Each structure stands twice: as C-alpha cells, then as structure tokens.
Please model this.
Amino acid sequence: MFKKVLVTGGAGFVASHIVDRLVNDNFEVTIIDNLTTGSEKNINKNACFYSVDIRNELDTLNDIFIKKRPDLLVHYAAQVNVVQSNERPIYDSQININGTINLVQFAQAHKVRKLIFASTGGALYGNCRQIPSPETSSFSPASAYAISKYAAEFYIRMMCEKSGVPWTIFRYSNVYGPRQRLASDGSVVPIFLQNAIESKKSTIYGNGNQTRDFIYIDDVVDSFMTVINENINGIFNIGTGIEVSINELHKMIGQLTNNKRRPIYRPERIGEVKRSALCIEKAMAVMDWKPKISLREGLSKILQANP
Ligand SMILES: NC(=O)c1ccc[n+]([C@@H]2O[C@H](COP(=O)([O-])OP(=O)(O)OC[C@H]3O[C@@H](n4cnc5c(N)ncnc54)[C@H](O)[C@@H]3O)[C@@H](O)[C@H]2O)c1
Model:
C-alpha cells in the first residue's frame, strides 16, 4: 500500500480531483504544478504545494523528492491544448516529453514504488477503424499533442521496465466535470454549458456528426483509486465506450438548460477526429470498475454546482 503520493499537475482539472480523493483517504499528498493552466483555487489545502516547472527546475525537483520521499508518483502535468501543440510543437514536447523524462529519472533515482501517467486514448488512436477502440488499436496521432503523449508513454515503459519501477498508463477519453476550464483546449462541454447558461449560441465545426466519448470526472477518480488500492499495472483505456455526437451533446445541454438557441455551423477543422470512443472491456475486467454516471447525470451535476 502507498502512503506518500507526489502528484504533478495537481492544480489542474483532472489531477486536482484525484488529489481531493487521496487527501480524503488519508494519503500524504504533495503537488507539483507551475500554474500555467492550473489554478490556486483547485489546490487542496491539506496537500503540500510546490510551484515548480517540470521542464527545467531540476534542483528543486530533486530536493522535493529527497524531502517528501514519495512512494507513488502520479504524473498528470502536461501541455494539453491540441491547437497550441501544433502551433508550438517544441514547447509542447519540452513539457510532455522532456518533463516526463525528468520525472521518470527522479522516480528511478529516489526509488519510487510506482508511477501512474495520464495519456490520451482519443488523440492517440485518431481516426481508428475499430470503434470503440481497444488498447491494441494502431496509433494514428493527428496532432503534436498526440505524438508527445505517445513518446512519453514509450519513455515511461522503456525506462520503468529497465529499472523495475511498476507503472500504469491511463488513456483517457474526453473527461468533463467541475473545474474544467473554458479557455483550455477547446473542451466542448464547458463551452457549450457556459453559452447555454448565458443564452448564447455555440459554434459547431463541421456538421456536428463527429463523435466523442465523454466520461465524468468522478468515474475517472474511481478508476484511479482502484488501481492504487489493488496495485494494478498496465495500460488501460478509461472512457464509457459510448459515442455521442457533438449535435447530440448540444441538444442535451439545450434541454437541461432550457436554451433553445440553435448552434452556428462553421467549416470543419483540419485534422479533427471524426469518430472516437474507447473500448473499456480491459479496465472493466481487470480493475472491476465501470463508469456509473451517464452524460445527462454528469451535465446535471455540473449545472447543480453552478446554478
Ligand atoms: N481532460 C481530458 O479530457 C484529458 C483527456 C486525456 C488525457 N488527459 C491528460 O490528463 C492530464 C490532466 O489534464 P487536464 O485536463 O486536467 O489539464 P489541465 O491543464 O487542467 O492540467 C494540467 C496541469 O499541468 C500543469 N502544468 C503544465 N505545464 C507544467 C510544467 N511545465 N510544470 C509543472 N506543471 C505544469 C498546469 O498548470 C495544470 O495545472 C494531462 O496529462 C492530459 O494530457 C486529459
């Protein structure tokens, strides 16, 4: 069992929810985040926070590992904006590849007992022929972000296997929930919700028939806790396996908010994945986990929290 957990990106959307659950379950949690997209508001008051850049503040990172002696490293800090990754691929790779290599080296040097990494399913599998896409799908990364996550996965696997550090890689679909930023990476759920609340029109790129697999943050946190409590290793898709079109999402949000404004359709964006849903059979079988919250329930929860 793990006691001391170091979480990178713990001021961001996904990892701040993981931190909250870890703190609640009495783990000793340390957060590393340079607050580029994360927010101080998300930082759990019972976690120890260090504002550090994983790319280059190596002496500070080393001191934190010496002082905190984590037995579990949870690496979720990343450049997550797909558009920005294509505009600034070197910046993206410095965080997502070099930053990951730095952390794996510290995990090895300080004898961390396990590493958990947040990867992406939708972006890695791209326009995969098999929907829902299993972990064995061929890769078809269509953005610099997907390539940097792909490379980071392979560095982790190679370096951890050589040094005997057990690892788990989660390949997430489209995670949504409270604390998701509007401006972040064009995340469609918070944008549509905000527009609907303000009775504004939303923009849909293409014909809106493109599909995504939306998973609520609480289901993501549950899968994370299963892996650490039962010490499960390997690569797992985490999603719902359900394809929802952007038109369907827009319609559902309209119904829940009573916003009858029709969307504005604009030309399709280059490189956008047409269909995406993750096969979660492996996670359900090995982890004895399954997503519990439907899209309608998840959206309602967000709206109740922000009336
Ligand atoms: N949200 C999703 O739908 C989704 C889907 C697939 C994968 N992921 C992965 O999950 C992880 C968390 O994503 P998120 O949606 O919470 O994004 P986020 O932007 O909210 O969180 C990322 C965090 O990393 C921090 N960070 C960025 N660069 C850093 C640096 N150089 N040094 C230290 N900290 C830095 C940011 O300040 C932020 O708090 C990422 O690794 C992302 O690739 C997310």
Q: What stands out?
A: The radius of gyration is 19 Å.
